[in-house]
Amino acid sequence: MDGPFIYDKFVTGKNFIGRKSECNTLHNLLENRENVCMYEPPKTGKMSVIRQCIFNMRLAGKQFAVADVNLFNVRTTGAFLKKFGAAVIRSVASAPAEYEETVRSLLSGTGFVFDFEKFSESDEILSLTSAPDADDIQGILDLPGKIAAMKGMDFIVVIEEFQALLKLGETEYEDIFRMLALTMAEQKKQDGHYASFILVGSKVNAMKHIFEEKKYFYRAAEHLPLRRIEDRMQIDHVVRGFLTEGKVVENDLVAGVVTLFKGNIWYLNNFAAICDSLSKGYMNEGILMDALGMLISLHEPKFQAMADDLTGHQLSFMKAVLDGESRFSSIETVEKYGLNSSANVRRVKDALKKKEIITFNEKDEPEILDPLFEYWLNKFYFER
Fold first, then answer.
1. Which of 277, 305, 333 corresponds to the end of one domain?
2. Domain count, the chain
3. Is residue 192 part of a domain?
4. Residue 120 confidence class, pLDDT cut points 50, 70, 90
């Protein structure tokens, strides 16, 4: 969308603010043949950091190919492999004729067939002759590295919503994880051009399960956390954005909004765009409150569904989180919030993590993943 506040797509260039250190770190990791994993809540800037890093690398003159695979709707191993293979092939082939024989040779030994006639009209350019086996999986995962060596340029594969693979059977996703980790290790040993992988997920606890609890990619992928963009940068971004539209807002009012959204730049841009549409000049507190009400109304059906899905004990636990409690298994906390027992507390914590409502840091301190849901839950659901 047009305007100074973009929230409907990732941003690069002049619209990208903060997180220069993350971009530099990602650049250095890729230059050193490292694979990367990133897991943060939805709409917190993961893809913007990746795209800005790629933008900077191209600006510096580095030649490489990029394939972007989004697994949000993948439910079978075959679907994953076809989607992965199609994205890799399309990223380096502008027309089917120039690549038909090469792709077919690269896929030899697997059960995949390349349908070049569908190249320009469909993503279904790969088909399987039978249920995928280990050779099929390895053959598709090896494609980026083979193409990198063949074309004489490095390859970056970005896999979005990587945690969706957990929806496959345990044996299936463990086979994929094991073979992908082996592929990553082999690519790091290459003397010439190579393929790197960036594994991205918005289900924080599911990604922690893969990378921290089960350690499927131990030493195979470096975790790149995203730090909160400095409040001053966010405030300046909003104030400058309004100035370009000939509008004025007080810094203190914007600072309050930044605090409410806990640094979530997507919510901030969405909110600022609504404010922009409500005013022709000075932004007062009334306009900001109207915009906040409109933003909440957009998300309220989702928030209500999330709250309705919580049991009584889970709601009590959420109330304890909002009250700043952290010793949930203590006798005092269990009795105060009616949590029954420390064993029940563990079950409640696990359920809320599985629902991706809260996560816990290394100190076992809770964090509600969606700051606007946190505000809505406290103010509207619990009416406090």
1. 305
2. 3
3. yes
4. low
- The pLDDT tens digits for 171-228 are 999 999 999 999 999 998 888 899 999 999 999 999 999 999 999 999 999 999 999 9
Find out whether 69 and 159 touch, Cβ atoms under 8 Å.
yes
Angstrom distances, CA of residue 67 to CA of 64, 90, 154, 282, 308? 10, 8, 11, 45, 39
CATH of the domain at 218: 3.40.50.300
Give residue 193's domain range: 19-223
pTM of the model: 0.94
From 206, 223, 240, the end of a domain falls on 223
* Domain shared by 239 and 199, yes or no: no
User: From edge to edge, which strands make up the β-sheet containing 221-223?
Assistant: 64-70, 154-160, 195-201, 35-39, 221-223
CA dist., res. 56 & res. 62, Å (int): 9
- Read off the tokens for 15: 């619209």
Q: With respect to residue 4, please indicate whether it lies within any of the assigned structural domains.
A: no
CB-based contact 130:111 (threshold 8 Å):
yes
Burial, 267: exposed, middle or buried (Cβ in 10 Å; 0-12, 13-18, 19+)? Answer: buried
SS3 324: coil
Contact 128, 83 (CB under 8 A): no
Residue with tokens 């896999």: 159
Shared domain for 182 and 241, answered yes or no, is no
Q: In this structure, is residue 10 part of a structural domain? A: no
Tokens 């070049």, residue? 116
